[in-house]
Structure formats: C-alpha cells, structure tokens
Automatic annotation (TrEMBL):
GO terms for biological process: cytochrome complex assembly. Pfam families: ABC_tran (PF00005). It comes from Kineobactrum sediminis. Residues 2-195 form the ABC transporter domain. Keywords: ATP-binding, Cytochrome c-type biogenesis, Membrane, Nucleotide-binding, Translocase, Transport. InterPro entries: AAA+_ATPase, ABC_transporter-like_ATP-bd, ABC_transptr_haem_export_CcmA, P-loop_NTPase. This is Heme ABC transporter ATP-binding protein CcmA. GO terms for molecular function: ATP binding; ATP hydrolysis activity; transmembrane transporter activity. Transmembrane segments: none annotated. The lineage of its organism: Bacteria, Pseudomonadati, Pseudomonadota, Gammaproteobacteria, Cellvibrionales.
C-alpha cells in the first residue's frame, strides 16, 4: 500500500535520517521507532505527502490514507460531534448515527455536545481517535496515537488496529510504547534504517 525508497532528511544543518526504505503491505503494521527528536514525525509527514520539500527519496502511496497527527486537529470551540462531522464531510461522509457510535466506541458517550475545549487531554485525543471508526481509508498513518490515552483506551485502540489489519488495512505508526496486535508487526529503527 505504501513504498518508500532511500529517504533522507536534513533539518537545521543536521542529518536526521538517511537511507530509509520500506514497504507496507495489506494486513501489516509498521512501527517507526527512535529517540525524541530522531525525526519520526517528520518521516511520517513525508510518507503522508504532507512535506513536499527538504527531503530526498521517493514515496509511492497506492491506497487512500488517513493521517492522524500528533497535534490534535480538534477545534476547541466545536463539540466532538461537530468536529467529526467536519472531518468526515470531506472523506467518508458518515451519518450522524455513525458519528455517535464512533464517539461511544472511544468512551465519549455523553460528551457529544460539549465544547471540545472543556474535555481533558485524553478525551481530546479520543475525539481524534474516533476517526478510526469512521474512515474508509485502507492506509492509516498515525503519529503517537497512544499519547495521553489510559490503559483501557490503549487496549481499545489495539483492538481497533487489529480489526483494521484483519480487514486488509495497513498501519504505519510512531510510538514509544510496545503495540500488541495479533498481526505481522515490524519495526523501523530510524537510527539504523533497519526494518525488522
Ligand atoms: N519545521 C521545522 N523546522 C526546523 N526544525 C524542525 C521542524 N520540524 C521538526 N524539526 C526538528 O526536527 C527534529 C525531529 O523532529 P520530529 O518531530 O520529527 O522528531 P520525533 O522523532 O517525532 O520526536 P518525538 O519523539 O520527540 O516526538 C527535531 O529536532 C525538531 O526540532
């Protein structure tokens, strides 16, 4: 679903990474690993097509994608329901009932109509994660999806990832934590470029 060859990125006079090549196939999860500042977010944005300059190498995406950034794209003045309606209007076009089901799936039942700025950090993140229950894109690129999520939420997210992989989807994510899914899982070490 996604192929990248010989990617390299220099920022502020520093070589963040080089010689990064990878393939992500249907049913596979690839975790990008590296220290703080190693360039994981930068790489994910390049793979998503969100950074067009300043890097070398080639990226080919062969399927529609969903990109969820580390910095939440949830508007504080809008409610969770309104935020999701806005996001899906340009993508899957889900119904109001589907949006409410997605919010319930991430534990936000009862919070559908409050201004999002009144939510906790973890609840704020969950509004974003609700998009994983609405998107029809086969290729998911997720930047630190577990950040600020409690243990029950982590398990629910792993279950959702497993469902997606079981349906033939693919996931590429950055995370500092071990991800538990019963599917092929590979790690890309940014420091060495090794995919294991
Ligand atoms: N727009 C930018 N201009 C200049 N430097 C940048 C820019 N974006 C990122 N950087 C720098 O690139 C480096 C890598 O950042 P990046 O966010 O990709 O790292 P990361 O591996 O995701 O880190 P973390 O684990 O802390 O989230 C950092 O040193 C950062 O300051």
């Amino acid at each position: 679903m996604l192929e990248a060859d010989d990617l390299a990125l220099e920022r502020g006079g520093r070589q963040l990474f080089s010689a990064i090549s990878l393939r992500v196939n249907a049913g596979e999860l690839v975790q990008i690993e590296g220290a703080n500042g190693a360039g994981k977010t930068s790489l994910l944005r390049i793979l998503a097509g969100l950074s067009r300059y300043g890097f070398s190498g080639q990226v080919r995406r062969r399927a529609p994608q969903l990109f969820l950034g580390h910095h939440s794209a949830v508007k504080g003045l809008l409610t969770p329901r309104e935020n999701l309606a806005w996001h899906v209007s340009g993508e899957a076009g889900n119904s109001g009932a589907e949006i409410d089901q997605a919010l319930a799936a991430v534990g936000l039942y009862g919070y559908e109509d409050v201004p999002s700025h009144t939510l906790s950090a973890g609840q704020h993140r969950r509004v974003n994660l609700a998009r994983l229950y609405l998107s029809r894109a086969p290729l998911w690129l997720l930047d630190e999806p577990f950040t600020a999520i409690d243990r029950v939420g982590v398990t629910a997210l792993e279950t959702r990832l497993a469902e997606h992989l079981g349906e033939g989807g693919a996931v590429l994510l950055t995370s500092h934590q071990t991800v538990a899914v019963p599917h092929p899982l590979r790690s890309l070490d940014l420091a060495t470029g090794l995919l294991t």
